[in-house]
Amino acid sequence: MSQQTRATPEDTAGETTAIIAKRVDSGVPDTEEITDLARAAGYTVVGEVTQSRRADPALQFGEGKANELATKVRRREATTVIFDNRLGPYQTYNLGQLLPEGVAVMDRFTLILEIFGQRAQTRKAQLQVELAELRYELPRVEAKVSLARRDEHPGFMGLGEYDESRERDIKARISRINDELEQIERTEEQRRERRRDSGFDLVALAGYTNAGKSTLLRRLAVDLEVDENEDQHPDLDATAESQDRLFTTLGTTTRRADIEPRNVLVTDTVGFISDLPHWLVESFKSTLDSVYRADLVLLVVDVSEPVEEIHEKLVTSHDTLYERNEAPIVTVLNKIDCVDEDELAEKRAALAGLAPDPVAVSASTGENVETLLERIDDELPDWEHERLVLPMTDETMSLVSWIHDHAHVDEVTYGDEDVLVNFEARPAIISRARARASELLAS
After folding, report:
1. Residue 206 domain-assigned?
2. Domain of 420: which CATH number?
3. Is the predicted pLDDT of residue 100 greater than 80, yes or no?
4. Hey, which of 117, 303, 312, 400 would disulfide with 333, CB 3.0 to 4.6 Å?
């Protein structure tokens, strides 16, 4: 569990400070993840207020707890209140009236969008962030529209005058963004198909944020770098360090793995996070296409977390991945350097139903990474052997060179009138080689 450090107003002078707020229907509120999210966004957390009771429609908290929150904000001189609950426009407005002037109020999803906005470095990521923001805003504008059309409220609960054009503008912008994202996805799909045609196997890393996917990518990669986006992702920098923070990777990062004789490309994608609303998942679904269209998926989990939490994350990940994914999934139990052998064995047994044959590694130290590379080789589609007899022509030499680039050549024998090539490769490469060989023989 993360430790919350209590800061004084003097310590946090000039910083963006936040009070964490969370309400649950029953039980003990867990604020670890929302605190980590706040820190990932750059906030200094200076306190928290929690409550176990049914939601109050006006304030989310009960009135007494809301007043306690306001008092703590004043004492801690916080600039922001972050709720680990979804706040409606009415609740946001009422809380803003209760808190000191100038204190911002945001909920979990607004915070996530803020983090996404900070991490968005490519055109695709920026469009996805904007799309998510618009989908978050649209129902709130529609609520204002509904009230205004009934002529019951000239404004909306003090939140501003109704502007009919805003709803039209949002819907039009959403449509334009979707069109542009579809074009980007078509381009990326063409790139993936070219890579397959060139003999590459495609492996995708999936899993929750902070599970260590980016660190594992660097362990698996060789020096050759492959641009997935127009703008280079910082993880492509060989000197880039892994960072223990959420959403370090928002776009996709692709690098070549060292699995001879295969040509394997491994792609790291945005991490999953718990309790995301449908509209937010939809906004980033094109990022997951790298997962859905892979030949193999490595589902990375942090084995140092409590087994109940790992179990819940595996269930959610499987629901997401099996929705559209047809590739085999291998569970990778990462961070074994943080647990002892007995704990690892207990967790393996407890998770056997969801992860029947996992690979346990430490991306940080490199332990068992070679075993993972061997497993990747075993799980990827088998290569086939082929033997081609080609006429001795200039075009044949070009084909032989192409086979060397896209396959593993066992033997080339040059005769007086023909060339014999023995090689193994992906089925798609063998099909292309056969087609080109047929063209040579027919000419």
Report:
1. yes
2. 3.30.70
3. yes
4. 303
SS3 letters for the chain? CCCCCCCCCCCCCCCCEEEEEEEECCCCCCCHHHHHHHHHCCCEEEEEEEEECCCECCCECCHHHHHHHHHHHHHHCCCEEEECCCCCHHHHHHHHHHCCCCCEEEEHHHHHHHHHHHHCCCHHHHHHHHHHHHHHHHHHHHHHHHHHHCCCCCECCCCCECCHHHHHHHHHHHHHHHHHHHHHHHHHHHHHHHHHHCCEEEEEEEEECCCCHHHHHHHHEEEEEECCCCCCCHHHCCCCCCCCCCCCCCCCEEEEECCCCCEEEEEECCCECCCCCHHHHHHCHHHHHHHHCCCEEEEEEECCCCHHHHHHHHHHHHHHHCCCCCCCEEEEEECHHHCCHHHHHHHHHHCCCCCCCCEECCCCCCCCHHHHHHHHHHHCCCCEEEEEEEECCHHHHHHHHHHHHHCEEEEEEECCCEEEEEEEECHHHHHHHHHHHHHHHHC
Q: Of 165-169, 278-282, 374-378, 424-428, which gets the smallest average pLDDT?
A: 278-282
Is the predicted pLDDT of residue 60 greater than 90, yes or no?
A: yes
Q: Are residues 99 and 39 in the same domain?
A: yes
Q: What does the block give as tokens for 251?
A: 């776009």
pLDDT > 90 fraction of the chain, expressed in percent and rounded: 33
One domain for residues 354 and 277: yes
Cβ–Cβ < 8 Å for 272, 208: yes
pLDDT at 290: 63
Residue ranges making up the domain that contains 29 = 17-115
Residues in the chain: 443
